[in-house]
Amino acid sequence: MDGRWKEIDVRTWERRATYEGFRLSSFPFLVIGLDIALGDSVEFWRENAISPYIACIYVACRAANDIAAFRQRIRGDKLVEHERVHADYTVPSGAESFTVRQVEFDVDFVRFQQRARAPESGKFVSPADPAESDHWVFLSCLPWLSFSHVVQPMKSRDDSVPRLAWGKFSLRNGAWQMPISIQAHHAIVDGFHVARLVEQMVAYFRDPAATFAASTLATRGSGEE
Q: Nearest to residue 192, comparing CAs of 8, 14, 5, 56?
């Protein structure tokens, strides 16, 4: 898995004051919840037998990779920026529990979908286990609920892995929407960056044929909902 990263020199960084200030906070995390437009994606997924969950994981991870702030991590006394971050997402385990699956991100949706579906691809970890690296975006879905925001557990004040959770789709005035909660370390991520992330996700959902590629038609009949 791609693990390339570079160190940011905080001494000359334009966000130095913000970075150092929020690291002193007892709860240095930004949590923003909103409804996000899904465009024509829901119909496209149904027509092409694409898993909505995998599609949303892909879009969230792709948008995070588009924005440097969502690839930056606090690592001890260092601030680093990953070249690419990958998908760490919840999957059911038993009737009332879950585990976490880690899959390498690929900008090609067809390849990413194949990895996410293949039982031998990626690995499973306990939610309580420390990640082997910080090159993840933590992703989760609450398909039973429509919510305003979700505050998620953090391992420490310097935990800087972003967390995204989304909820139940709803059809409003003929348009599909879903609630999403975005949680990140405020020393790195501001409302400006969250707005850019949302804009990227909306753009990907707006044009599903381009985002999920015409070659996904080959997966039709796979039976996955």
A: 14
